[in-house]
Structure to design on (231 residues):
């Protein structure tokens, strides 16, 4: 029995991508559970069309050329997608290498503020680049008013941890909100220095499920949270 292809829709039709039909009553049903056809599938369909065409009424030459052109376009698109995937992998590897090169440099979170809520007493870390002989660490509100002062005792420099109970110097609980943390200190030898919360040496890099994390202080921060890296 001859098959009339005069009403056959274009091979790239969306409807034809999601269904499979029997070409003859004796041919097996072809299934495509993913509903995706590649260039090889389109070539097979084109050859099958040619195989079952009516010799007395062959397919129109223009239609064959159109479908062949569409097949070439599909193959070019497939090759482009593969090239983009490879480029993405290379860029990801390059990004990882750049992150590793940040080890030993300084990283800034872009803020010197900690957050105080009604039900927490924040613990935070500050990096001191020199040994401490004397100095003070100050916590100030958004208006720059110092609400809490910590006296710094003689100790080695590095990343030091502090806990604030949320009270001011008079022992009163201050309102919840953002508070800046800064410190001024002297090593007793070479001079006076200042530092602030949010700036730390980058000690290591960790890759976790596609995310790049930098260890700053005792915490790991996503690379996207680090606003500046410098010597």
């Amino acid at each position: 029995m001859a098959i009339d292809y005069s009403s056959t829709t274009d091979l790239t039709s969306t409807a034809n991508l999601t269904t499979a039909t029997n070409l003859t009553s004796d041919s097996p049903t072809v299934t495509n559970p993913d509903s995706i056809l590649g260039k090889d599938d389109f070539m097979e369909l084109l050859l099958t069309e040619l195989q079952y065409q009516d010799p007395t009424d062959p397919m129109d030459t223009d239609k064959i050329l159109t479908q062949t052109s569409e097949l070439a376009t599909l193959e070019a698109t497939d090759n482009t997608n593969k090239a983009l995937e490879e480029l993405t992998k290379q860029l990801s590897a390059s990004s990882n290498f750049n992150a590793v090169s940040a080890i030993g440099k300084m990283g800034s979170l872009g803020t010197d503020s900690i957050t105080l809520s009604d039900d927490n007493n924040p613990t935070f870390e500050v990096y001191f680049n020199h040994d401490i002989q004397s100095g003070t660490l100050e916590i100030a509100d958004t208006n720059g008013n110092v609400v809490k002062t910590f006296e710094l005792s003689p100790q080695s420099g590095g990343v030091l941890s502090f806990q604030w109970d949320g009270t001011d110097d008079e022992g009163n609980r201050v309102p919840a909100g953002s508070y800046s943390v800064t410190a001024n200190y002297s090593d007793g030898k070479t001079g006076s220095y200042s530092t602030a919360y949010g700036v730390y040496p980058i000690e290591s890099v960790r890759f976790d499920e596609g995310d790049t994390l930098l260890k700053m202080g005792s915490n790991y921060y996503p690379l996207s949270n680090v606003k500046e890296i410098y010597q």
Notes: Residues 61-100 form the longest helix (40 residues). The longest strand covers residues 177-186. The chain is about 25% helix and 30% strand. Residues 1-25 have pLDDT under 50 and may be disordered.
